[in-house]
Design a protein that fits this description.
By secondary structure, the protein is an all-alpha fold. 70% of the residues lie in helices and 1% in strands. It contains 22 helices and 2 strands. It has a two-stranded antiparallel ribbon. The radius of gyration is 23 Å and the shape is globular. The two termini are 35 Å apart.
Length: 445
């Protein structure tokens, strides 16, 4: 009952729109030789780039993530938890399902490579199954930085996201004007970090105690975005379009920052009305399962595309009107419905696996091993595991699961090492002194 239903709704809404957006812009074409090609809708039909303003909803996911992380870290600190334990626990919650998903996909890649599947086809499929992974390294790094970011929030409040936004603008200016190498990598943390940090501010009332502030954020962000795409060099598309420079997502640009601020303002303005709806149990019962399955939906939502491609496109059963024509758009509705039915079946089939992962997480999460009085000397394990996992996931996000049609050995080993280090149980004081009551151990420590 203490959970904020609106925060859970934002997660479910964001994931739902990401899935719907990816499905909507996915186009498949069967070549005369039987190969399946995926033309880029946003590049082929340029007006569709305006649709990304509604489907680029990830700022709200980072906002909700910051809101939840701020409360979780505050409770952990009050209970005597440590940064290593808390960060390890948060990371493991994401990494367990991501590692299992990656393991199953990589197993399929290995089998297909061994039996001689066309490397180009394998590379395309490997990319499609990893396209959503860009989010995980960024979110994991922000989770790892939560203790210092939250400390800065407690001291300076709204000045922190303002400062982060200012540095992001400087970095983006260097990227656009002089094409400074590697500087753009900062914006992945700074732009999405602004939304994450605003989640702290939202939770503590700093964004709602002044009634005009949400409207100012919405109007100011929208006007800045409009100015940057009309007077500035930035495109309207909030999703990467091949050959388009500068991009609003690779790295996140000043225009993306403005749109994120506008979304935060709109989210705050909509909160009272949506909360009243969520107080109705019938509505909440419809929203809650989506939030509970959000990680499963996010990871597995491109599998139905491959299943439908094999069933209808490889066999030549799917009609193929001209991309972007009225007939093509008319077929989007049955396309989405079929994918939704297949995804529902995938989620249902994965329920036993999800339950098993929940049990494994409860037994191995690092936050139960590390407290300020536990006396453990192996605090470095979660940090090392996190570093290995982030490196591997970044590689998958940029190159896919089958770069150049080959099995990615080093990233696979990195993810295996990282997950192993995060699930390895640490010996606590209680483990070393099993005969002494826990309260006595705490007093002795």
């Amino acid at each position: 009952m203490s959970r904020d239903r609106y925060v859970d709704f934002l997660r479910a809404w964001a994931i739902g729109l990401v899935v719907l957006g990816h499905w909507l812009i996915t186009a498949l074409v069967r070549e005369p030789g039987g190969e399946i090609r995926a033309p880029e809708l946003l590049a082929t039909v340029p007006w569709t780039q305006w649709l990304t303003l509604g489907f680029q909803i990830m700022p709200l996911f980072f906002l909700a993530g910051g809101h939840a992380a701020g409360g979780s870290w505050a409770r952990a600190r009050a209970a005597g938890g440590t940064a290593a334990g808390w960060v390890g626990g948060r990371a493991l919650r994401l990494l367990l399902p991501a590692a299992v998903y990656s393991g199953l996909v990589l197993s399929a890649v290995g089998i297909c490579s061994a039996v001689g599947v066309d490397p180009n086809t394998l590379e395309l499929v490997g990319w499609a199954m990893a396209m959503q992974f860009w989010f995980l390294p960024v979110y994991l790094l922000l989770s790892a930085l939560t203790p210092p970011l939250h400390a800065a929030h407690r001291r300076w409040g709204l000045l922190v996201p303002v400062a982060m936004g200012a540095v992001a603008l400087v970095a983006d200016t260097l990227v656009v004007t002089v094409h400074a190498p590697y500087v753009g990598l900062l914006d992945y943390m700074l732009v999405w970090g602004v939304a994450y940090q605003l989640g702290f501010c939202w939770r503590d009332g700093l964004l709602t105690e002044r009634r005009p502030l949400p409207a100012a954020l919405a109007a100011g962000g929208a006007l800045a975005f409009a100015a940057l795409i009309t007077l500035g060099p930035f495109p309207v598309s909030l999703i990467l379009v091949t050959g388009q420079t500068p991009s609003n997502t690779d790295p996140p640009s000043a225009a993306m920052l403005a749109w994120a601020v506008a979304q935060v303002g709109l989210c705050l303005l909509a909160a009272p009305a949506v909360r009243r709806l969520l107080d109705r149990e019938r509505v909440w019962r419809a929203v809650r399962p989506v939030g509970g399955a959000s990680m499963t939906l996010y990871l597995w939502h491109m599998l139905p595309v491959l299943i439908v491609a094999a069933a209808f496109y490889l066999t030549g059963l799917a009609p193929e009107p001209t991309l972007g024509s009225a007939a093509w758009w008319g077929l989007r509705l049955p396309w989405l419905l079929v994918l939704g039915v297949v995804l529902a079946g995938v989620v249902r089939a994965l329920r036993p696996l999800d339950r098993g992962l929940s049990l494994l997480y409860a037994r191995t999460r690092p936050d139960q091993d590390f407290t300020r009085s536990s006396g453990s000397s192996r605090y470095w394990l979660p940090w090392l595991g996190l570093a290995a996992s982030v490196t591997a996931l970044t590689r998958f996000a940029t190159r896919g699961f089958a770069p150049d049609g080959r099995f990615p050995v080093l990233p696979t080993l990195g993810l295996l090492l990282g997950t192993t280090l995060l699930t390895a149980r640490r010996r606590t004081t209680a483990d070393r002194n099993p005969g002494k009551p826990k309260e006595a151990q705490r007093e002795a420590a």
